[in-house]
Every structure is written in structure tokens, then in C-alpha cells.
Amino acid sequence: MNFQDEMKQIFLRVAAGEVEPEEWEAWWNSNRLRLEESLNRGDQGRMMPALWDANYYWMAKTQSGVAYYFHAQGRPVKISSYYEEKMQEEEMRERQKAMEGYHRNTASARQRWEVYLEEHPASPVIFDWKSLMGTPARQEPAKDFPYKHARTTEQWKECGEELKLRLKENLQAKIAPVAKAYGMKKAGPKTFVREKNGLVSRIQFIGYFRGGGYEAVICYLCPIYAIQYGILGLPGHICQGENFQRMQKDWGVIQYGMEAVDAAMVERINRKFDDILIFLADGVLPEWQRIHSLEAYFARERQDYLKVTETGPKNPKTGRPMWDLGTGEKKDPWRADDYLLGVWDLLNAREAEGYARLEKCVKHNTDYMKEHLKEFPDACNDPRDAMAVMYRNAQLFLETKEVPETEKRRDKLQETYEEVCRFMRYYHGLAKKTERD
Questions:
Q1: Any alpha helices (H) in 309-380, and if so which ranges?
Q2: Which of 148, 246, 337, 366 has the most CB atoms at less than 10 Å from its CB?
Q3: How many CB atoms lie within 10 A of CB 407?
Q4: Separation of alpha carbons 15 and 49, rounded Å
Q5: Where a domain ends, among 273, 291, 309?
Q6: CA-based Rg of the chain, rounded to a whole angstrom?
């Protein structure tokens, strides 16, 4: 057998998934000079890229290069999925190994937080959320569509209405029951909220602005007096980890209303809501439940744990962190942390620290807010304008500094806190519309 026949035979074996990475590397290296004579530089680069390593990720690249080679010759070949499947298994093992290292590195801070929780226990919620997965109970049969992609206004309308029906079915059958189990109430057709011990938790599905499905789901836990921006609320592996990434993948299936919502699409929508349910019920909600008070929310042990979990381990495929919630050297653009922590300092009689933080917050935002309020005079009463609301709250708390007597100042502070919380219940969706001066 001459070299050309030998080369094509091994190429065909690669296409069929019959050559292991080490065998391919050894064969290529032992025939490098003859391969340079037989293949053009493009084929060489596609079959053996410069960074090639003996694993299934690179073997899948080689297989793709082989397929291109035969296609260019007018002899397309059938490709085995072997390397792709092995690559996914390999990547899963590497990701698991990386996550194990991450948990080892954060174990010390996590243990201190766990000790704190043992000393300040919260009642766990026992709820069989896994029984909600799958096809929603009493789901209507899927419709038959004479088209796949919507082309006309009438088709877009039909697809949009059917998509919204399937979203509503899943929201009511999967998300609403688990939210209710954790004490949350409806604050709208797509929003769930809870107030407990000075903390508010909120889950909100954001409608897609072009009239489709859901653009995103927003989850936050914070003190009632605060806005949803600022220091982290959950460890990185919960809010940005595997469950989050699985939930985000193929999100478009519940976002756009431009395809026929047939039986196959309905099944994809059901599976996507299973991913959302897992993200909430297997991570977010149980973690929120453990943070049962303002003291637990601001506990040093918790803040230390959140800090070390900001950056995830390196993704073995890309070499970049799996998530990175840190701001690096950048300052908080709204000074929301100064507001959040400043009020907490005041509530705990740390007046020097508290007023200093609030002064930073107000000073930083003053110039912008002066111009903003000229254009939107009622912005401080608008839940859609978080920055204006926070700025007004910070002003109110800072004004208590002018009260000279300690007892009267603390009374004024408590009065301000109650007034701010009264308005913020409206802001977070816990109460009906509330006005303030």
C-alpha cells in the first residue's frame, strides 16, 4: 500500500471515530514530512492545528478537518459522533475537577459561614419540588401549525399568543408552587415577593420588549430599605454556576415568538422551565431561606464567604473563569454599597461610619441627580428609576445628622427608617402604590 492509500485509510478511520488521540498523534508525527508533501497548508492546519493536544476536543477538530478534506475532493463522508461525545465526557470531568478545587479553596470561609448558621439556625423548607418537573399538569395539547417560521403579522401574533400560553402554564405549574412553599406571594402575573425580618426577596420574569416571551429572570435578596444593586447576595457557584449556565443555554426558546409552538417546541419550553425550577429550588431559594435576618445578611462570615466565591475556577475549555462577579479596581458606579452599609451602620449606632458612607453616596450622585430630576421631577417615586430612589433615601438618612441631641437624632433615624421602608415596600412590589414628598 502506497502512502496516499495509507493516508486516506486512516482519514476514513478518523471520520468513523476509530482512531484514538494518541494513535493519531503518533501516526502524524512519524509521517510529518510525507504529509507536508501530500496536503496543502490549509488541510494540515485543519487536521493538526498548532495547539493540538492528545485529547478528544482536538480530535474532534481533526475529524472536522478530515471531513473538509474529503468534501473538497467531492467525496463527502459520514462523520461519527464518537469524538464529540467523548469530548463532552472529558469536559465534564475537567469541569468537575475544577469545581472540586474551587470548593477546596473556599472551604475555610464556607465553614465559618456554616458555623454561624448553626449558631443562628433558620427553619428549612421541606418541599418536593422535583415532582413539579416534566409536563405541567393539565397542559393543553399542542397545536398543529402549517408553517415552521412566522412570516406574516398574523403568524407572529399566533405564535406569540401560543408561546405566552405555554409560559403561563409552566409558570403556574412549576414556579408558583415552589415560590409559595418559600412564603412568597404574587406581586403580578410574573413576579413573586416575600418580606421577612427586614429582608425582601423577589423573583421576576422580564417580558421581552418585542412582545415575545421572557427576556430574563431577575432574583435578588436585600434589606427592605435597599435597592437590588450592590454587594453580592449569593455565592458565585449558586448564582452563576452550573445550574445557572444550564438555565441560560437555549433561553431563546422562551424568549422569541417567531417559530411555530408545535409539540416539539412545547416540549423544549417544558424542559427550559425544568432548568429554571432547578436553578431556583436547588440553590437560590434554600440559600435565601438560611439568610433569615438582617444580622445574618450583614454577618462578617457571610460577606467573607461571598468575597471568596466571586470568581469561579477556570473553564477547562476556554481557560477563563467560569464566572467573575468581582469589580476589580472599578468603583461601584452608583455607590449603592455605601448606601446599603451606611444605613446598616446607623441602625447599629455606628454613626461616624454610617454618615461618612452616606455622604459619599450622596456626593457622588448629586450632580447627575440634579440634572436628572429637572427632566424627571417624580423620579424618586418611580420604582423603575432605582438610582433616583436610592439617592432620595440616602438624602433622607443623611438629613438626620443635623439633629443635635443624640436621643432625638436616633428617634428621627428610626422614624426615617420606617418611612423609607414604607415606600420601599411599594418599590419591591410588597404593597400598593405609595407616594412621598
A1: 336-347, 351-375
A2: 337
A3: 8
A4: 17
A5: 291
A6: 28
My answer on whether 268 and 350 are in the same domain is: no
For 245-276, write each residue's pLDDT tens digit: 999 999 999 998 889 999 999 999 999 999 99
Neighbours of 280 (CB within 10 A): 24
Number of domains in the chain: 3
User: Taking the alpha carbons of 319, 325, 326, 332 in that order, is the dihedral positive or negative?
Assistant: positive
Q: Domain range holding 359?
A: 336-428
Interior/surface letters 126-142, b for 16+ CB within 10 angstroms, e for the rest: ebebeebbeebeeeeeb
306 is a domain residue = no
Please give the C-alpha separations between residue 305 and each of 3, 10, 105, 108, 122, in angstroms, as whole numbers: 61, 53, 11, 9, 18
The three cell numbers locating residue 28: 502524524
pLDDT at 332: 80
Asked whether residue 251 falls in the same domain as residue 358, the answer is no
Domain final residue pick, 24, 48, 80: 80
- Cα–Cα distances (Å) from 420 to 27, 227, 405, 435, in that order, read 73, 12, 22, 11
Burial 373-406 (b: 16+ CB within 10 A, else e): beeeeebbbeeebebbbbbbbbbbbbebbeeeee
Model confidence at 128, pLDDT cuts 50, 70, 90, reads very high
C-alpha–C-alpha distance, residues 287 and 424, integer Å = 23
Domain identity same for 181 and 286: yes
Distance CA(205)–CA(127), nearest Å, equals 22
437 has a pLDDT exceeding 80 = no
* The amino acid at 210: R
What is the tens place of the pLDDT at every residue in 322-377? 999 987 667 788 899 999 999 999 999 999 999 999 999 999 999 999 999 999 99
Domain membership flag for residue 356: yes
The answer to whether the pTM exceeds 0.85 is: yes
Cell numbers placing 142:
399542542
Q: 260: which 3 cell numbers?
A: 411555530
Claim to verify: residue 201 and residue 264 sit in the same structural domain? yes
Q: Is the pLDDT of residue 200 over 90?
A: yes
Q: Which three cell numbers stand for residue 284?
A: 437560590
Q: Quick check: helix, strand or coil at residue 95?
A: helix
Helix axis angle for 56-72 and 21-30, nearest 10°, is 60
